Amino acid sequence: MEKEIRLFNDRIEKLEEIIVNTNDVLSSLMEHQISLESHLQELVKSNISKTIAIKGAIKIDFIPIDEIIYCSANLAYTEIISLNNNKVTSTKSINAFEDYLSCYSFYRISKSLLINTKHIHSYNKKNGQILMQNKDLLDVARRRKSEFLSAILPQ
């Protein structure tokens, strides 16, 4: 009887050892999976399209996002002004562009203007106007002024 108990206890110890080893392997696999998921997310972010397709009434223009200076609402249409001062008119609303470009450095300064903050030349605090790189002067809405300043100024 004692021999059977000893054998039983030995088997229990071996099972406990197997469980501990299995837990270690699972833990290592989980850490590896988390690392892979993190790398995958970084890869997906880096592969986000750098060009936007602007659907107009007659044609579709492809503009690099970095070249967009600002978007201006014009009734149900949106005018996109790019670095070379080309104006492309889109049939989409400015809200659609705000949603799409929110992950880039775009900021809505008024009901009708969405700007690329990378193309700001200067900001006049006194009259609340932004001078863009293409020399266009844009007004920041009074109610968005403080929020805009906190968004563009380094903390």
For the largest beta sheet, what order do the strands appear in spatially?
Answer: 5-4-3-7-6
The CATH homologous superfamily of the largest domain is called LytTr DNA-binding domain
**Which stretches are poorly predicted, pLDDT < 50 over at least 5 residues?**
none
Fold-level CATH name of the largest domain: OB fold (Dihydrolipoamide Acetyltransferase, E2P)
How many domains? The number is: 2
- Report the CATH architecture of the largest domain: Beta Barrel
- Rg over alpha carbons: 29 Å
Count of alpha and pi helical runs: 3
Tell me which oligomeric state these chains represent.
single chain
Q: Overall mean pLDDT score? A: 88
Give an overview in words.
This protein is α+β, with helices and mostly antiparallel strands. It folds into 2 domains: 47 residues; 102 residues, OB fold (Dihydrolipoamide Acetyltransferase, E2P), CATH 2.40.50. The protein contains 3 helices and 10 strands. A hairpin with a 2-residue loop joins strand 3 and strand 4. The chain is elongated, with a radius of gyration of 29 Å. The model has no long low-confidence stretch (mean pLDDT 88).
